[in-house]
Design a protein that fits this description.
single chain, about 100 residues, alpha+beta, 3-stranded antiparallel beta sheet, 4 helices, 3 strands, globular
């Protein structure tokens, strides 16, 4: 019975994700963090991926999320004193918050 309830809960969570859709949120990043994200975007890491442990996969996934934030900063970032203001996809912002909590 619990498995069925979890499956139903997962469907509701997915529906919420669909409702949120492509919304963006405006964030203010310290300039050094924004520059670090842009540097991640600009790296050339097109080689093959070697076998990974689950921990290595998580780290690579986080690096990819950072690079996508860097893309957003490079395309839409606006300087604001010691900060950069950028509209981020909620998924990218959520990935950063999850990384901070773990």
């Amino acid at each position: 019975m619990t498995s069925k309830r979890y499956h139903e809960d997962a469907e509701v969570l997915a529906a919420i994700g669909t409702a949120i859709g492509e919304h963006r949120i405006t964030v203010r990043l310290p300039r050094a963090l924004a520059e670090g994200a842009v540097a991640a975007w600009q790296r050339d890491e097109t080689g093959p991926v070697e076998a990974e442990t689950p921990e290595q996969w998580v780290l690579r996934d986080r690096a990819a999320e950072l690079a996508l934030i860097g893309l957003a900063v490079s395309e839409r970032g606006r300087p604001d004193g010691e900060f950069v203001v950028v509209d981020l996809d909620v998924a990218a912002a959520g990935a950063a918050v999850r990384a901070a909590r773990e």
